[in-house]
Amino acid sequence: EQLVGRISFRVQQLDVRVETKTLDNVFLTAVVSVQYQVLRESVFEAFYSLTNPAQQITAHVYDVMRAQLPTLELDAVFEAKEELALAVKNALSSTMTGYGYQILQTL
Known about the structure:
alpha+beta
């Protein structure tokens, strides 16, 4: 057997800055922090499926936030913080599990 690479099982955090416009035409920059880790039973998928998992996660965060935030006014964005975090986590979890990653938390 030959060693082709190493992969960490540690929890990793990715901070994604998303700039978008709200329903009341206010531009805002939101920072979404995603905590994720490799699933031990899916190491093969985690290593060989994605070249850059952080880039894949970032794309999904952009997609969800840019779909959700323009439907809310600025005041409602602060009230909907938990719902937005849950929407991002659900979207990421369904996709990233197939690639061997577990989404632990979105903040």
